[in-house]
Design a protein that fits this description.
By secondary structure, the chain is of the alpha+beta class. It contains two helices and four strands; from the N terminus they run ββααββ. The chain has helices at 51-63, 83-95; strands at 2-14, 27-39, 104-114, 117-121.
């Protein structure tokens, strides 16, 4: 098995209604997203997937979040835009992409909302 990991970044604001602290107020983060995909077959070039192609697929999802007020997005109208929910959102979007339907699977998404605070979503365990 091979794991490929890339890092993407986006900036966005959110608030966590009903949170018993400062995060209930409007604030923003410089989010960092680590995406790991896995595969066991190499193509003719000796790659599971070209990093360029992986970055492009991740970029499509990140563009949906970058410089938005996350609470206004349809995905977060009824779901708090926590780091946990953002990680799952990114995972679900990528996992349903045709780029990851054959021999390449999304393994996990790690979302950093600060240099010292991150969550990792890995549905396979």
């Amino acid at each position: 098995m091979y794991d490929l990991t890339i890092i993407a970044e986006f900036e966005a604001a959110h608030q966590l209604p009903d949170y018993p602290g400062k995060c209930c107020r409007l604030h923003g983060h410089n989010w960092k997203v680590e995406v790991t995909v896995t595969g066991h077959e190499l193509n003719d070039l000796g790659m599971v997937m070209d990093f360029k192609d992986l970055k492009a697929e991740v970029g499509k999802v990140i563009d949906e979040l970058d410089h938005y007020y996350l609470n206004d997005l349809p995905a977060f109208k009824t779901l708090n835009p926590t780091a946990e929910n953002i990680a799952k959102y990114i995972y679900d979007k990528l996992a349903s992409s045709p780029a990851f339907q054959q021999n390449i699977n999304v393994r996990c998404i790690q979302v950093w909302e600060s240099p010292r605070s991150a969550v990792k979503y890995c549905p396979q365990g």
